[in-house]
């Protein structure tokens, strides 16, 4: 899709840019434990400041469910953001009405204000037109820089974008460009890696990807369901046996659409779910007892996967290949991640990854910084991969 960006803007002196950001940061004892989401917003804020705009930041925090919950106020974010920006960030006790308007009136050109939690109003999650209009009344333009919230049709992500000239922020643009490079208009051949525990949580994803990719590697507990569907023993492993027919249908659809499915050909099994548990590697088809549980893919599987990756130009990754949190069952994921990093750094591969477990796995492998792009958007990233339309993105078009 086409959308306007901050590059389409010129002089904004004295005008107000209403900017949707994601400041739903992790907190412990009132302290931000990871300020990544604040840092991600800085390029957009600073670019608007240079254009002379007054910057009004809209964000949510936690789930107050349309009521004012003091413990879920965004006020604690203002000092942290001030420190990162090197300038004082004003705070408004409400995101609409006189409180917000008064703060914005006092703000100089290039000034920044953080408005109170939009979810303190029931109209936010209901995408109430009247609430969206109240937000729009504060600004001259709207900028969405929160891809992570773009799958929600809320007033601050979708409603207000219909009422003001709308633009994608710098973070939003990077995310959309990366996802387009991975799925929209990728350089072929393309491969996907999809892992995780359950097929049932990623049915839409698998069905969409087999129609778009040249190869798809399935790992983690999900792979067990496919192996079981093919008649292989999985012992006492996590397996959704009731999805046997669904797994077979996906395999048939992949074959019909020319997508090669890569499943484990060897398995790392153990009888205990704990770090450094006694384990053994067996070939697919080996006898497994009821106590044997598959916790990772074996070296033969990794070798095959590396070979396919080496012959691919684009990779999209969602989910680990094994129980990466427990060594040595992190081996397949770590080895695959390091190989992807090598291919990416050498310019042979465009690698886009996303999803909570995926980010954690790549950080564990020490390769997150070497990927072309790593999305922290979670649900929005997954829905995009599933081929679903994201309201917050559509509203920018």
UniProtKB/TrEMBL annotation:
Q: Which domain of life is it from?
A: Bacteria
Q: Which family does it belong to?
A: Belongs to the phosphoglycerate kinase family.
The record's note on quaternary structure and interaction partners says: Monomer.
Q: SUPFAM superfamilies in the record, alphabetically? A: Phosphoglycerate kinase
Catalytic reactions of this protein: (2R)-3-phosphoglycerate + ATP = (2R)-3-phospho-glyceroyl phosphate + ADP
Answer yes or no on keyword ATP-binding: yes
Give the matching Gene3D superfamilies: Phosphoglycerate kinase, N-terminal domain (3.40.50.1260)
EC assignment: the record states 2.7.2.3
Q: Which Pfam families match?
A: PGK
Where does the chain bind substrate?
Answer: 22-24, 37, 60-63, 119, 152
Molecular function GO labels: kinase activity
Q: Which UniProt keywords apply?
A: ATP-binding, Cytoplasm, Glycolysis, Kinase, Nucleotide-binding, Transferase
Q: In which pathway does it act?
A: Carbohydrate degradation; glycolysis; pyruvate from D-glyceraldehyde 3-phosphate: step 2/5
Annotated residues for binding of ATP = 202, 325, 355-358
The gene from which this protein is expressed is pgk
> What protein name does the entry list?
Phosphoglycerate kinase
Which subcellular locations apply to this protein?
Cytoplasm
Principal localization reads: cytoplasm
Q: Where is the signal peptide?
A: none
